[in-house]
């Protein structure tokens, strides 16, 4: 009834609570800021990814409206599907416009009711003569309910906008309580999968498993989000896997890749009878990227291969354009501290012994101990997103109606300026909500130095501290599914890296053709725009624009107090020594982000500094540090021209004069190009095009394309020559 979901995954989020209680688990899949779903067993044709399938509670979803904006088409599909579930119908992707060759790719989608379109034709009697066919009423009845979305690119930012919405159905809507039996909403969560496997190993048949799950959840028979057939399919898929044989096949795959490309790196350990214990690997481009951007690393261990009951860990970083970089991956036997210690040791060997300055991880006690042992001089912090994802499981039921207010207060206290303020406000918050004896609130406070912002200001995080997009889930989406075997896992990761690498190179090329917009006309801003990438310059520009609202008071020689012009107290202390170009601020903004804070920029402006001191324009944020473009072959030229054509279309279609000007010049340019040689005569055009060879493995996490042109001399010269013709 709905389109096949191509992004099902065999990766599931783990739910072990760091408090150590075996009866306490984390339901991170319910965290609404990062909802996603997984298929199980044989793929059903109507599963839609990203749709939360919870039927125990009612959440009102307002109807979509024309002009409503979404970050991507998946987000729009998820919203419309949630609305449809509450209303009593299912959603199907219908027509789309655009293709990979189009400058905008796919730029329009139609999402329709599952009963849209004319009835499907019935097979003829001759075709059905050899088999009995059950007569049933056609599902489709030309229903006009739909939501049409269109891609919109404004100032380099891409988003999808609702251009048409109709909620008029010509059929009866389904009972919401019966929607769970529709294939489009049947779903087995990761927690239920683990429970099913445990009961099956204990000798329970399918009927007993269903009764046990109904008792666990306190629901009536038939109210689970999956059926008996779904459980049978899941168990059948799980039984058909032989982990030991798959492990040996995985090692063979790694050895083959090593023979194919000697620069491919992997580490592994095995136990009795050559049974695979742990394995970690990286690609040559990833190692090269780590040498430049390995100052901050995010080690995400929050997912596992459920069919093999193995945790998966992936190392990520961030480059100077704000894109996520893949450094390496590991599949471990278990989640014990020794396993994590081995993973960290292996990662260090893969990266030629270079330690990161900062490492972010999930809130996991065993992993914390491993990092402390193996990376003693690396600052370890817990990802703020992972902290926030645990709050619903810990406090939503306990606080009930007060939970949302508590969460807002938690975020305010988390981001306070000083440690003293944090501890004082924390005590007040805990007392106000009656959480003094709660073990989770105590656990958070004991580990406050790993996640509370006042304790982390002196360490560099490069924007990764609060990110939620940086995850195994987003990286593997579309490349690893419920049918992927362990023996194919390394190869599939390589395919994912290659794909994201190409997308990252194309996005970076588009950035290079975007112009900076100077907003303050201050020489400091103009100087920074000539050195920093667009991503880094945006951070710098935000700081320098904010600095114009701050007043400066000299307290002693080369020491200044900077505070908002409407404030009569508070502020931050800035030390500035012009002789040796040394500046520092008590807010520690530069230390945390690598970009000068507005307090320092305000002082530099008043002291008639027209250039940003060289040491405060970090190499990792400069344009020359970019990993892209590094190639000049056919693929790169195609991507670069496609990106440039997209920008030309956007700019030239605004007015008639622009259109006529561009059309005239492009016509002459095309004639000139056709007169040029069709092949390179002097050089042989060779290009490495696979991760297993020598590409830089970068995974883009930003959909916004920004930047300014870097190398347009050749194009400019050609245009001038044509004008002279």
TrEMBL record:
The yes or no answer to whether the keyword Ribosomal protein is present is no
Tell me which GO cellular component terms the UniProt record holds.
nucleus
Any single biological process term in GO: regulation of DNA-templated transcription
The residues covered by the SWIM-type domain are 572-608
Keyword list, A-Z: Metal-binding, Nucleus, Zinc, Zinc-finger
Q: What InterPro entries does its record include? A: FAR1_DNA_bnd_dom, FHY3/FAR1, HTH_FAR1-11-like, MULE_transposase_dom, Znf_PMZ, Znf_SWIM
| GO molecular function terms listed in the Swiss-Prot or TrEMBL record | zinc ion binding
Q: What Pfam families does the record tag this protein with?
A: FAR1, HTH_FAR1, MULE, SWIM
* Record flagged with keyword Calcium: no
Question: How far does the signal peptide extend, from start to end residue?
Answer: none
The compartments listed are: Nucleus
What function does this protein fulfil? Putative transcription activator involved in regulating light control of development.
Q: Its family?
A: Belongs to the FHY3/FAR1 family.
What protein is this chain from? Protein FAR1-RELATED SEQUENCE
